[in-house]
Amino acid sequence: MTPSPAFRRSEPDARRLSLIEACARVLAREGIAGASVRTIAVEAGVSAGLVGHYFPGVDALIAATYAHTGARVDAALAAAMAKAGDEPHARLEAFVTASFAAPIADPELLATWIAFWSLVRARPEIAALHDEQYGGFRGQLEHLLADCGLPAAQLRATAIAITALVDGLWLELCLSPHELAADEAAAIARDALARLTWKAPAAG
Amino acid sequence: MTPSPAFRRSEPDARRLSLIEACARVLAREGIAGASVRTIAVEAGVSAGLVGHYFPGVDALIAATYAHTGARVDAALAAAMAKAGDEPHARLEAFVTASFAAPIADPELLATWIAFWSLVRARPEIAALHDEQYGGFRGQLEHLLADCGLPAAQLRATAIAITALVDGLWLELCLSPHELAADEAAAIARDALARLTWKAPAAG
DNA sequence: ATCCTTATTGGACGTTCGTACAACAAGTGC
DNA sequence: GCACTTGTTGTACGAACGTCCAATAAGGAT
User: Fold this and answer.
1) If both were cysteines, with which of A22, A76, B38, B98 could B80 make a disulfide (CB 3.0 to 4.6 Å apart)?
2) CA B194/CA B150 separation, integer angstroms
3) Beta-carbon neighbour count of residue A184 at 10 Å?
4) At what angle do helices B88-97 and B124-147 cross, to 10 degrees?
5) Is B200 a residue whose pLDDT tops 80?
6) How many Å does it take to go from CA B58 to C1' D2?
7) Do A133 and A203 meet the contact criterion of CB atoms below 8 Å apart?
8) CA–CA gap between residue A19 and residue A149 (Å, rounded)
9) Which positions of chain C lie under 7 Å from any protein Cβ?
């Protein structure tokens, strides 16, 4: 009979990915405080030593997990926009409301995201990733707003406001899922988007 | 000559408070991962063992720090509202924009706040504090909105949107202070508040 | 079948963690 | 000046931490 192997070799890229996904799950479940090399390794079903084989340190694994998660979000947003067609307003609304539908509105993903936020101040490499992610998001938003005819002078402030709204709704969606559901968050975002992108009222 | 004392006794309440404040500073500087008993004790200028004398464990100290920080925010908001007088719209605007002025717009306070957010999912007692804090904030907001004549049917959604906006702006203020300044955040919040509280547009 | 590459394991290392506790000493009442 | 309370220190302990590395073995190549 064939002796059952004690472990199975993986393609380096596949193993790398499985470690990243395990790291994301641990971050979502236990937060940054519980994301130790051993915990992540157990979650991935491998030995602790293997983490060192694929990443120079646990910090690098966490940073890679951030980058991977960010790419997932970007891809989901791009897909939602592509699905919305060519009409600028439809694309803008799709871009914003996609944050409150699968696969982005996943509590696990949001919890992972919050764990990253908590690292930005203390870890410069995480801060760099954040600036890149946030800048990309706001840049796309400004472009979409311009396509919708928003005056150039209002692009920055409006994009910041919408980004803040989305992030804030993410927060509550994740921290108090019993208080706020994804579909309600989507409705709130849709309404707020319409109000924030209307012609400026006469100053009073 | 008088021998200089090796240490100074403090009133229990004063020492307790100094430990809480030291904990907040550590959370702001290093995040939750760096908030160990020893680090906090050094920050407070006492020995590590003293923490155990005042709190049953480091988790309790962190929870107490959350409660204390929340009370500080509440007090600052109440003060800003009181200063605004009796006119409902002025009170509402003061309540919202106070989040972007001293003492709330302090990067240290915001960093501490983010550290708490990262704990909500993993620690039930922190989740309870969060629900209380968030509920209180939104409750006050709904009350102010009602005073401003907003229809009852829109109170909840509008309060959630404004809270999300404030939280999202806090986030960016703290994570990318070089990208977003407090006064710009205040201006964005003021404008968004006006737009979000206007009469609903005709659908279409 | 044998060799070779290298993914993978498991244990060792020094450090830091949270907690407990006996000893010490500061301040108060007498 | 003495006793007493208790805030405070320092240390000790086991557990968990990140990292390193020699030994092992899986799977493809020949």
Assistant:
1) B98
2) 12
3) 16
4) 150
5) no
6) 39
7) no
8) 44
9) 7-12, 16-22, 25-27
